């Protein structure tokens, strides 16, 4: 594919969640069908930290079950960088566990910046985000 398609509503919810949690890092999941993200799942950052995140696994399991019930796939995993650039950290790259898009919402400037990546075996490929109407 080389890009990720996201419904505008799910995109806004992701950015809003990240802005709400600032100065802490926020995290969550993006799901959808036919390769288009239609839903954003806010997940609690159990680290409650401005420089790291770990997802609440109970919420992740519940979200994955609901995706399955609705015939949706996990298409993306997002987190925010409240005080740094929209580029994955070494830690982010080393902790990739699932073959999906990895999105970073950077909040260190006036306007949020969102970037998406495909990360495989330490190799980081930027992919454009294509917003579609909800
Ligand atoms: Zn990060």
Automatic annotation (TrEMBL):
Residues 4-134 form the MPN domain. It holds the Pfam family Prok-JAB. Keywords: Hydrolase, Metal-binding, Metalloprotease, Protease, Zinc. SUPFAM superfamilies: JAB1/MPN domain (SSF102712). InterPro entries: JAB_dom_prok (IPR028090), JAMM/MPN+_dom (IPR000555), MPN (IPR037518), VirAsm_ModProt (IPR051929). Gene3D superfamilies: Cytidine Deaminase, domain 2. It comes from the Bacteria. PANTHER family: CYSO-CYSTEINE PEPTIDASE (PTHR34858:SF1). This is M67 family metallopeptidase. It comes from Paenibacillus profundus.
């Amino acid at each position: 594919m080389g890009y990720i398609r996201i419904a505008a509503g799910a995109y806004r919810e992701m950015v809003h969640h990240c802005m709400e949690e600032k100065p802490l890092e926020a995290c969550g999941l993006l799901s959808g069908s036919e390769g288009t993200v239609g839903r954003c799942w806010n997940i609690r950052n159990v680290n409650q930290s401005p420089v790291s995140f770990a997802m609440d696994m109970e919420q992740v399991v519940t979200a994955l079950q609901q995706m399955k019930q609705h015939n949706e796939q996990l298409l993306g995993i997002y987190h925010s960088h409240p005080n740094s650039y929209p580029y994955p950290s070494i830690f982010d790259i080393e902790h990739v566990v699932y073959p999906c898009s990895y999105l970073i919402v950077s909040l260190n400037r006036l306007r949020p910046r969102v970037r998406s990546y495909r990360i495989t075996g330490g190799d980081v490929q930027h992919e454009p985000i294509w917003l579609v109407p909800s």
